[in-house]
């Protein structure tokens, strides 16, 4: 398929060449979308590594202080974000 701009759209599914599925060490499901970062994310999904190593001791249903917390969109806690804490402290 060629777009009006003359660019062929990138299809991430077509670029994955994996002989065996990459299985997440935390949840046991296949890692597909972030397969190229499987080793970087300790052989887990991004969300799984976030909740395993970065989110505690915060309630899993609230945003934590780690950047990119998946729950920031659902239950935001701007006061926990590093930039917000620095501004509140006057630094």
Brief sketch in words of this structure:
The protein has helices at residues 12-15, 46-54, 82-89; strands at residues 22-23, 30-31.
| Strand composition percent | under 5%
**Mean pLDDT reading:** 80
Strand order of the largest sheet: 1-2
- State the order of secondary-structure elements, H for helix, E for strand: HEEHH
Task: List segments where confidence is low: pLDDT < 50 over at least 5 consecutive residues.
Answer: none
Structural class: mainly alpha
Please bin the fraction of helical residues. 10-25%
Summary tags:
single chain, 91 residues, mainly alpha, two-stranded antiparallel sheet, 23% helix, extended
List the helices and strands and how they pair.
Blueprint: H1 12-15, E1 22-23, E2 30-31, H2 46-54, H3 82-89
Antiparallel strand pairs: 1-2
Architecture overview:
- It contains three helices and two strands.
- Strand 1 (22-23) and strand 2 form a beta hairpin.
- The termini are far apart.
- A two-stranded antiparallel ribbon has the order 1-2.
- The chain is extended and about 50 Å long.
- It has two domains: 1-54, no CATH class; 58-91, no CATH class.
- The protein has helices at residues 12-15, 46-54, 82-89, and strands at 22-23, 30-31.
């Amino acid at each position: 398929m060629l777009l009006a701009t003359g660019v062929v759209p990138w299809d991430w599914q077509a670029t994955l060449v994996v002989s065996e599925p990459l299985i997440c060490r935390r949840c046991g499901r296949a890692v597909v979308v972030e397969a190229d970062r499987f080793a970087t994310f300790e052989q887990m999904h991004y969300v799984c590594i976030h909740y395993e190593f970065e989110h505690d001791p915060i309630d899993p249903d609230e945003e934590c202080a780690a950047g990119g917390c998946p729950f920031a969109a659902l239950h935001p806690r701007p006061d926990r974000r590093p930039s917000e804490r620095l501004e509140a402290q006057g630094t």
